[in-house]
């Protein structure tokens, strides 16, 4: 790395000159093994949640007002790529934001609140995808929400590591879909969100229901599945 670093810096500076871009010296760090970038810790290990952001969530007391609920969920949304099944876990808290819902902090809300805090006591480290290896998408579809994790195996093929977590609450209309339609909807949504990864890799889909098999077995798709 010591021999490559000057060459990399030279190319970067030439690129900046070419496009007449300027850097703020106070925000530049060179020759380090880790650093903060867009609110995350980036290192040779991967991408990690900023401990300060986790600490801020851990120290929060149970929300008592709608504003506090939105503030809590907003903090989680910022680091949602690190949280497995965030939407399903926080479902009781999300319900408090419904217009027809009373803002009563229930036992289920407290359990969800405590569960997220416990999860964030050891947040995962997300690894960058490696070239030449397929990605694995684990897709989970529930009645009211979906969740997925994009992962990849290591060189030995015996260990998997996470690259990105996603979750989504179905809209009122989507929640009335059949399970197959929900699965196709979830797959289409996840593929759009993870497009930058999937374009450069073969991706294996692991799901309870196989929407790909259904799509290829149908001579002609119709309706919303065809649109997706």
TrEMBL record:
Pfam families reported for this sequence: RT_RNaseH_2 (PF17919)
Lineage: superkingdom: Eukaryota
Coiled coil: none
Domain Reverse transcriptase/retrotransposon-derived protein RNase H-like, residue spans: 105-202
Entries under InterPro entries matching the protein: DNA/RNA_pol_sf (IPR043502), Rev_trsase/Diguanyl_cyclase (IPR043128), RT_RNaseH_2 (IPR041577)
Entries under SUPFAM superfamilies matching the protein: DNA/RNA polymerases (SSF56672)
Protein name in UniProt: Reverse transcriptase/retrotransposon-derived protein RNase H-like domain-containing protein
